[in-house]
Amino acid sequence: MCCDRRPHRCSDHRGVSLVTHSKSQIKELLEAHDLHLRRDLGQNFMADANTARRIAALAEVTSTDNVLEIGPGLGSLTLALHEYRPRIVAIEYDRGMVTALRDVVPDDDNISVIEADAMQVDWHAVVKTDDWVLVANLPYNIATPLVCDLLDDVPQISRMLILVQDEAANRFVASEGSKQYGAVSIKVAHYAHAKKVAHIPRTVFMPQPNVESALVDIRRRDTLAEVNVDTMFSLVKTAFGQRRKMLRRSLSTAVDAEQFASAHIDSQRRPETLSLDEWYALTKAVSA
Length: 288
Hints:
The chain is α/β, with parallel strands linked by helices. The chain is 36% helix and 19% strand. An eight-stranded mixed β-sheet has the order 1-5-4-3-6-7-10-8, with helices on both faces. Strand 4, helix 4 and strand 5 form a beta-alpha-beta unit. The longest helix is centred in the C-terminal third of the chain and has 12 residues, at 229-240. The protein is elongated.
């Protein structure tokens, strides 16, 4: 993990300081640093100033906040967030992008650029205090597992405002009975309140992705239900691994008839019909 707390400001070809990037400026930056877009990293750069500023405004950050950005790329959102003067820690995996980003962002002690894989970072070495805010245009290929890991392991992040593929956004906010409702939905609901706050069209990205995107606001609950989370998520994962089967079949080795009865759950139901509270009840019955 490599960190540089004092990157350098860059200007466009007219000598004007960059505030956020247009498509032409992104092309110029890529050419200047001899960079090529990497599809394997899910690189789609935000190339619309209004969208970047809209996300920064919705993040509701101030100069007293600590902001974590994952996958900043060339810094379109970083620069928009910087207008509110929070402390920003930007984590970028692509070494070439790290070099370019350090040339783009202002020479400011409040911005740190870290070269690291977000799926492997020692988060407790990065976010050492409470009440961090994650604001990010997350790479599509890591968005879901990353959000789940952060919810599980990094309670210091109290809020997230994340731009993700619309399909992933629907899973994050889904409620019981919907097609999108699954293990991810239950994990998010256990830890936080989540809602979609904006639709982001594919036209604001470069290159333009094949899918639509959505902005999701995730805010940690003040208190969590007293339940064995390892047991609950194991039950949930097993049940949704065979979501078309009735619970008495998918959970046949984990839950017996007496435990279903104790939780007041009909074992002939399917997993997507159970609310979060019912998963709590089933977990407590199994753990008793």
